[in-house]
Input
Amino acid sequence: MVPSDPTPLPATPSQPGGPELVIPGGSTTRLGRWLLRELESVDSTNDAAASLPAWNAIRADRQSAGRGRYRRTWVSDAGGLWISAVVPTGPAEDGWAALPLAAGWAVCAALEDFGVPSPRLRWPNDVLVGSRKIAGLLADVFRPGLAVVGIGVNVTNHPEHDDPALAGQVARVADWAAPVPALRTVAAAVLERLEEAVRVMEAGGFAALVPRVNGRWQAPRAVRVELDSGVVEGWFEAVDAAGRLRLRLPDGGLALHEPHRVIMLRERD
Ligand code: BTN
Output
């Protein structure tokens, strides 16, 4: 169940002149620049947020059709943080491409504050502890200038109960945090860090956020990268200020790969 809201707000537009929120029920809370709406169940929070203005976010206790990357189903059992945030990207074509990295950094920073040890990024959209995935990110662009950043974090849930193939591959905040924070508390922390990341990018572009992002790879990592032009192996080092992957090759050379040309990156260890 959604916890009762100590400071409920009416479902008003988040920006003067912006469209009305159309999702009935639940509770609404102001968190910094964010207007967070919490619901018991939706199909996918990304889809539920598709028509909302910037700086709105939706959290649901459960998703009946949670989506992952590569059109995979995202197990969204009770006890996980399933949230989508509508972020302004500006007119720049590359503005939204960096958002999953920005959101990944935000999740790492927030989870670390709850005692999760050394959460790290796996390019492009995963947050892991060691080799176990604790969070995934999915950015959708439904309208120009706005991105919906979907964030799924395992908190007290057990996704491996729904999908036994995940056994041994997933981590949860509850594996470390004591006491385990409420989902709303985790949501507030993630949104606060995401707002910080967006503010940094508003002021200095993605380049300004790169030092934070690059501090979260625990790189170099041996990887196999499937590109649109073939497969390469090497060591992933970081991303550059333009968001390109820096790949150290077996002969010592450095290759830079545009993110949109990377089909899949797999870690080899
Ligand atoms: C992945 O790792 O494949 C991305 C998973 C993204 C899951 C989140 S949960 C909230 C939001 N709503 C969705 O349907 N998906 C994202």
